Amino acid sequence: MRALYYFLIGIILFYIDTAIALVIPMQISGKEIIFVPHLTIMYILIISVYRGFGVALILSTVLGLITDLYYGSFYGLYLFGYILLVVIMDFFFKVFYRDHSMLFTIVLLGTLVLEIYVAVIYSGLGLVQCNLFEFVIFRMIPTLILNLILLIVLYPLITKFLKKIQLKIDSERS
User: Fold this and answer.
1) Which residues contact 21 (CB under 8 A, 6 or more apart)?
2) Of 84, 85, 111, 136, which one's alpha carbon is 20 to 30 angstroms from that of 60?
């Protein structure tokens, strides 16, 4: 039952990602500023710290497939990106286990790594043309700011949910 909760929260965050992306496009002097929310990957990375590698790996596989099927421009892109980030998070975060400031930093870096990964794959396939300066100014910085705000909102909610689920499980065992 607990796994179903993790999955449902991931699906809800996926749809919130999509809704946010549709609501906040911006243009300044003819240049489009791109805000890319990554609530789904931030949730998966937080789960990988608080619930373990196996749960995060399953969530990253399922939610990565859903993201690939929904956006559909290149299948497997988000699936492998999510799995790669979970493996990196599991490998490196054991040193800073549950240190909140480091978790914030690493989750934000994970979203930036995913953004760079997607841009490199798309530009390598010739699907997009991107100038490094424009990419950093009009996509990376706005994405970083948006995801920082979303992480500040998401983190307390997710940790509260995880503690509630854990307390419920602990009380059922007694």
Assistant:
1) 35, 36, 37
2) 136
Q: What is the rounded end-to-end Cα distance, in angstroms, of the chain?
A: 18
Closest by Cα among 146, 143, 118, 159 to 9: 159
100-127 b/e with 16+ CB inside 10 Å = b? eeebeebbbbbbebbbebbbebbeeeee
The Cα 169–Cα 7 span in angstroms is: 17
Mean pLDDT check: name the lowest of 5-9, 60-64, 145-149.
5-9
The conformational region for residue 53 under phi > 0 = left, psi -120 to 50 = alpha, else beta, is: alpha
CB of 165 closer than 8 Å to CB of 2: yes
- The pTM (predicted TM-score) of the whole model is 0.87
Nearest to 21 by CA among 147, 116, 117: 147
R_g of the chain computed on alpha carbons: 17
